[in-house]
């Protein structure tokens, strides 16, 4: 036991919540996550541009078929979640890009050498999904987009009415609005932290498993890598679906109350009004 | 461990500990929006077009299949109707043929019976004639025999030619 603890303590395990700075360009810090993120972005661009080029030329192969199949599945999902066909087409670029970017960048986190290749003792590569800057950025973009579409659909005043009510005239409504406001913030935060938490935990898990299993890592790691590939797919899909659900909810907030009364306060209020 | 040390250093904000840098955040937002714009402008329209075309092709195929099914159903119904009609016509023809056959047989029987009756009647008439002729012959012969016998009995007192037919006839009638 003592030997094990001594060995474990001797392991050179460096885990950093934030991405690490490698250098600076024009005063902007260049982090390891940025480099991997740029690679992930380029891979995403390359795959999708290649697929689009082939589709445009009518030259299909298995890979293009796979991309097209995934794209078609995502489109079907968008159409089923967002009833407004025009809005569905408008939100498609954002939602689909989120899916592909998150998926590919998450999968990059299982690349061998992601933690072992270092520059000045700093890992050169780190998945951008394990960087809060990226996940917060995605969550911000999503929440802002949702608000933009909500304002377009409901108008500024009606959209603001979702959150702000006169507490003297409608105390329950004011409280509900407050909850809604807190809900919006928590949704965005959860969106960012969920992806970050999973990706970061996945990376840490792989590093710890690699260190603990030592020479057996060759056999043990692939199992965890497979698991991470699966988790990456789930996370990309969850982010994609949540983006759509938030958009649909914001759109239909006042349009169809019987469908949207998802919060207990709203449901109680509606029930009281019906009585 | 490093992070715990960072947390312990109270002079660093929570964002700093979590690695959130506003410049990097802004850069990530801009980079992602550029990516969305690029893909939305040059990639997704083609993929959407192909998906729409495929959907349209599938819908057209489904419609054609539906139409073909409807045509097949219609043809099947038509065939069934024609078969039924043919069966009914065949049944009618058979019934008519049977009726006609029965009528022909009945007519033939009637004709045959009439013909037979005619033949029988003719034969009876002929027989009757023959019988009458034979009777007349027999009668004449009887008269002749009576006259001859009378002549013989009377030993020539009464000539055969003088015996009146009427007398003989009356005598025969009385005999009868």
Overall radius of gyration of chain A: 23 Å
Name the chain pair whose interface involves the most residues.
Answer: A-B, 43 and 33 residues
Oligomer: heterodimer
Mean pLDDT of chain A: 83
Low-confidence segments of chain B, ≥5 residues, pLDDT <50?
A: 1-10
Write the layout of secondary structure elements.
The complex is a heterodimer of chains A (275) and B (176).
Chain A: H1 2-10, E1 21-25, E2 28-31, H2 32-57, H3 62-81, H4 85-108, E3 118-119, E4 122-123, H5 132-154, H6 156-161, H7 171-213, H8 217-251, H9 257-260, H10 264-274
Antiparallel strand pairs in A: 1-2, 3-4
Chain B: H1 2-8, H2 14-17, H3 22-42, H4 44-153, H5 165-175
Key features of this structure:
heterodimer; A: 275 residues; mainly alpha; two-stranded antiparallel sheet; two-stranded antiparallel ribbon; 10 helices; disordered C terminus; B: 176 residues; 87% helix
Could you please describe the fold and organization of this structure?
The complex is a heterodimer of chains A (275) and B (176). Chain A has 275 residues and is mainly alpha-helical. Chain A has helices at 2-10, 32-57, 62-81, 85-108, 132-154, 156-161, 171-213, 217-251, 257-260, 264-274; strands at residues 21-25, 28-31, 118-119, 122-123. Helices cover 73% and strands 5% of the residues of chain A. The longest helix of chain A is centred in the C-terminal third of the chain and has 43 residues, at 171-213. Chain A has one domain. A two-stranded antiparallel ribbon of chain A has the order 1-2. A two-stranded antiparallel ribbon of chain A has the order 3-4. Chain B is mainly alpha-helical and 176 residues long. Chain B has helices at residues 2-8, 14-17, 22-42, 44-153, 165-175. Chain B has five helices and no strands. Chain B has one domain (43-175). The N and C termini of chain B lie far apart (169 Å). Chain B is rod-shaped, with a radius of gyration of 66 Å. The interface between A and B is large, with 43 and 33 residues.
């Amino acid at each position: 036991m003592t030997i094990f603890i001594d060995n474990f303590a001797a392991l050179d395990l460096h885990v950093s919540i934030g991405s690490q700075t490698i250098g600076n360009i024009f005063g902007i810090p260049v982090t390891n996550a940025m480099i991997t993120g740029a690679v992930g972005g380029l891979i995403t661009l390359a795959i999708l541009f290649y697929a689009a080029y082939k589709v445009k030329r009518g030259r299909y192969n298995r890979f293009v078929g796979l991309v097209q199949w995934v794209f078609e599945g995502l489109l079907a999902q968008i159409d089923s979640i967002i009833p407004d066909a025009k809005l569905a087409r408008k939100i498609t670029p954002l939602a689909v890009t989120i899916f592909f970017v998150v998926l590919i960048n998450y999968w990059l986190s299982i690349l061998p050498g992601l933690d072992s290749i270092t520059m000045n003792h700093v890992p050169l590569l780190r998945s951008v999904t394990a960087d809060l800057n990226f996940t917060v950025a995605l969550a911000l973009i999503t929440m802002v987009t949702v608000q933009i579409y909500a304002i377009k659909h409901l108008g500024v005043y009606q959209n603001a009415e979702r959150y702000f009510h006169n507490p003297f005239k409608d105390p329950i409504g004011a409280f509900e609005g407050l909850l809604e406001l807190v809900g919006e913030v928590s949704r965005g935060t959860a969106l960012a932290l969920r992806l970050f938490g999973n990706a970061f935990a996945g990376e840490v898990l792989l590093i710890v498993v690699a260190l603990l299993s030592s020479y057996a890592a060759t056999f043990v790691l692939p199992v965890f890598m497979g698991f991470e590939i699966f988790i990456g797919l789930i996370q990309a899909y969850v982010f994609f679906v949540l983006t759509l659900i938030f958009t649909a909810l914001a759109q239909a907030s006042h349009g169809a109350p019987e469908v949207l009364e998802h919060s207990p306060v709203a449901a109680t209020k509606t029930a009281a009004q019906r009585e | 461990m490093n992070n715990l040390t960072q947390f312990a250093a109270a002079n660093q904000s929570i964002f700093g500990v979590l690695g959130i840098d506003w410049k990097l955040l802004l850069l990530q937002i801009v980079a992602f929006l550029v990516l969305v714009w690029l893909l939305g402008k040059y990639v997704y329209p083609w993929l959407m077009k192909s998906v729409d075309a495929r959907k349209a092709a599938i819908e057209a195929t489904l419609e054609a299949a539906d139409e073909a099914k409807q045509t097949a159903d219609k043809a099947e119904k038509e065939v069934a109707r024609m078969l039924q009609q043919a069966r009914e016509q065949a049944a009618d023809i058979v019934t008519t043929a049977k009726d006609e056959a029965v009528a022909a047989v009945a007519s033939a029987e009637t004709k045959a019976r009439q013909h037979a009756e005619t033949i029988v009647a003719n034969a009876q008439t002929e027989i009757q004639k023959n019988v009458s002729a034979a009777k007349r012959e027999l009668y004449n012969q009887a008269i002749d025999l009576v006259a001859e016998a009378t002549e013989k009995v009377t030993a020539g007192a009464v000539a055969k030619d003088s015996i009146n037919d009427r007398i003989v006839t009356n005598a025969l009638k009385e005999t009868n």
